[in-house]
Amino acid sequence: MAFPAERLRRLRRTEGLRALIRETRVEAGDLIYPLFVCPGRKVRKEIGSMPGQFNLSVDEAVAEAEEARALGLPGLILFGIPPQKDARGSGAYDPAGIVQEATRAIKKAAPELLVITDVCLCEYTDHGHCGVIEGETIANDASLELLARSAVSHARAGADIVAPSDMMDGRVGAIRRALDEAKLTDTPILSYAAKYASAFYGPFREAAQSTPRFGDRRSHQMDPGNAREALREVALDLEEGADMVMIKPALPYLDVLWRVRERFDVPLAAYHVSGEYAMLAAAAERSWIDRDRVMLESLTAIRRAGADVVVTYFAKEAARLLRRG
Ligand code: PBG
Fold it and tell me: Taking the domains of the chain in order of start, what are their residue ranges?
C-alpha cells in the first residue's frame, strides 16, 4: 500500500489526532531538578552563565523544594558548595556538611519529594579534582574510600538515592559495600555510568566553583568519540550494584542513550547539562529561538532516545508549561 491510499498526513491534521498517536510524552513526573546549595541564610545568587538558576542557602533550597513538589516534580539532585575546601574534600563526607544539612531540611519540609545527592569530591577539594591527588595523578583506589564515606553520610542524612559522578573505577562497588555495611541496604545507587569529558559542563563549574586548578578530567571521564566503551561502563556499574544508570551530557549523546536503552533493561536517566541549558537560554534571550518550544522539543528528544528520567535545569519551567497544556 502506498500513495495515494497511504497518506501519513491524515493523522497529523488536528492536535487531537496528533496527540492520540504521539509515541513519546514528557511529563513533570519524568524530570529531576538540580540545586546548588551554599552556606548562609537568605542567599539566592544567580549563576552568571545560567540565567534563572541560583546558588541557594539551605532555607532557600527548602523553598525551591516546596515549589518543585507543588509543580509535580518527583525529586531534586543536590550539589554542595562547602564553606571551605581542602585537599581531601572533607566537606563531602562531613555529617554536618552542606549537602547533608540540605538533605535533612528538605526531607523534613517535603518528605515525599525524592532527594538524590551527587557523590563526587570535585566541589569539595581545593584542587578541584574528583579524587585525591598523588603527584600529578588522581589516585583511583585512594579516592574510593572517601566517595563511599560521602555516599553513606548522604544516605544517613536521608538521601533517597545516591548518585556517584566521579568516574573512578570501582566506585559503585565500593559505595554498595559501604552502604550495606552501614545497614543502608535499601539506598539505591544511580551511577553516572557514561559520563563524558565534556566542555558542556562549563557553566556548572562556575556554579559549583569546581574548575580544576590544573589539568582536566580526561583521565577519568570518557572520550567523546567512544560509544562502545559506554556500554562497558554501564555493564560494569550494573555488575557492581548500580540500580539505575545515567548518560551525560544528553543531546550530544543521544546515540549512546539509545544504545544503552537497547542493550540494558534498567531504569535509565540522562543529564541535560549546564552547557546545554546555557546555549538555549542565551539564544532565547536574543529571540533567536522560541525558548518554550525548543525546551520541550529537547526534553522530548531525550525521552525518545530512551531516557526514563531527565535531569534538567528546565524542570520547573517545563512542569509549569506542561500543566498549562
Ligand atoms: C561532578 C559533576 C559535574 C556535573 C555534575 N556532577 C561537573 C564535572 O564533572 O565537571 C556537571 C553537570 C552540569 O554541567 O550540569 N560533581
Answer: 24-324
Q: Which of 165, 167, 206 to mutate to test the pocket of ligand 1 (most atoms within 8 A of CB)?
A: 165
Name the strand (E) or helix (H) holding 190: strand 190-195
Q: Does domain 24-324 have CATH number 3.20.20.70?
A: yes
180, HSE (Cβ side, Cα atoms, 13 Å): 9
Quick check: 195 and 229 in contact, CB under 8 A? no
Give residue 204 CA to ligand 1 midpoint distance, Å. Answer: 6
> Distance between CA atoms of 29 and 1, rounded to whole angstroms?
40
Task: Give the sign of the dihedral formed by CA 64, CA 68, CA 70, CA 75.
Answer: negative
Tell me the pLDDT of the chain (325 aa) as tens digits. Answer: 899 999 999 999 999 999 999 999 999 999 999 999 999 999 999 999 999 999 999 999 999 999 999 999 999 999 999 999 999 999 999 999 999 999 999 999 999 999 999 999 999 999 999 999 999 899 999 999 999 999 999 999 999 999 999 999 999 999 999 999 999 999 999 999 999 999 999 999 999 989 998 999 999 999 999 999 999 999 999 999 999 999 999 999 999 999 999 999 999 999 999 999 999 999 999 999 999 999 999 999 999 999 999 999 999 999 999 998 6
| Burial category of 302 from C-beta neighbours within 10 Å (exposed 0-12, middle 13-18, buried 19 and up) | buried
Provide the annotated active-site residues. Answer: 195, 248
Cβ–ligand 1 distance for 274 under 6 Å, the answer yes
